[in-house]
Write a structure and sequence with these properties.
The protein is of the alpha/beta class. The chain has 11 helices and 14 strands. Helix content is 37%, strand content 24%.
Length: 315
């Protein structure tokens, strides 16, 4: 059985190949059952959570991401989220590979946003605003730069030192990188706005958007979280990664549907429809497009398959 640590996963999943692999996966017939959540009691601490995310291609590959969230780990100087990915032969159930789940998740999440951008942002988009400075930020920037001719990247975060650290990590890229202190003028300037934060109050306001922009919302994964306000949701042409996930877990969509700012029929399509050509892409150069992702086990399976293919190719 192959073993991929974080570094091996990174080397095996270059963004250009991963974006293409996700495009192929969304066009393919892959079974993705609902993920299972289990509460795990921890003595004298907050409950932990066990998440199981399976997916399979009939007669081919079968995989499952096993993730844990243990909030009490913060006090022990341990990561609160851990994840591993187990890839199996879909015809025999034999293990094929085990992969670092954290690196796999970061890369496939960024690649899904870039895949959406390939269909939804303007082909001449040259300025990106990255809102958020967590582990996903550099991945999102590099993935977006893979599909669009970025010349300038702005980074905004609540902590300017964290924004500077992200900027420093991108010092050798082809685009210029600057840290901005005021989010609203930067929103106005950017052709693509990518958000990966844990915000519960909107950071992106519809009143601050202009025609021709593309908004990429990655951060919220519960109905209580929210990165964009109702005005942004009703102004933009809205797309999602999957209806099954976004309608239940994406705070911006759940809130906008509750308030009446967004109707289910207003969502133009998902990544299945975009990649298969069964929904509209960007409707005009002046349209404002918005993509909301919460992640799918299909993306994990496609990434794990690609990592193994790459490993076999290099050996």
């Amino acid at each position: 059985m192959l073993t991929f640590n974080a570094q091996a996963v990174a080397q095996s999943l270059p963004y250009d190949l991963l974006i293409d692999a996700l495009e192929d996966a969304f066009r393919s017939d892959i079974d993705v059952p609902d993920r299972a959540h289990h509460q795990i009691k921890v003595p004298d601490e907050a409950d932990g959570t066990l998440l199981l995310m399976p997916a399979w291609r009939t007669g081919n590959a079968l995989g499952i991401k096993i993730a844990t969230v243990f909030p009490g780990n913060m006090k022990k100087s341990l990561p609160s989220v851990n994840a591993s990915y187990l890839l199996l032969d879909g015809t025999t159930g034999q293990p094929v590979a085990i992969l670092d789940g954290a690196e796999l998740t970061l890369r496939r999440t960024a690649a899904a946003s870039a895949l959406a951008s390939r269909y939804l942002s303007r082909a001449d988009a040259s300025t990106l605003l990255m809102v958020g400075t967590g582990k996903l930020a550099p991945h999102l920037i590099r993935a977006h730069a893979t599909v669009r001719p970025l010349e300038r990247v702005m980074i905004w975060g609540r902590r300017p030192d964290a924004a500077r650290a992200v900027a420093d990590s991108l010092a050798n890229e082809r685009y210029s990188v600057t840290v901005v202190e005021d989010i609203q003028p930067a929103v106005k300037e950017a052709d693509i706005i990518s958000c990966a934060t844990l915000a519960s109050e909107p950071l992106i306001e519809g009143s601050g958007l202009r025609g021709g922009q593309h908004v990429d919302l990655v951060g919220s994964f519960t109905p209580e979280m929210c990165e964009a306000d109702d005005a942004a949701m009703s102004l933009a042409d809205v797309y999602v990664d999957t209806y099954a996930g976004a309608l239940v877990e994406a705070g911006e969509i759940v809130k906008a549907m509750k308030s009446g700012a967004l109707d289910r029929a207003d969502i133009v399509g998902d990544l299945f429809a975009l990649t298969r050509g069964t929904c509209d892409q960007r409707r005009s150069p002046d349209a404002t497009t918005l993509f909301k992702s919460v992640g799918s086990a299909l993306e994990d399976l496609a990434a794990a398959e690609l990592a193994v293919r790459q490993s076999n190719h290099h050996n």
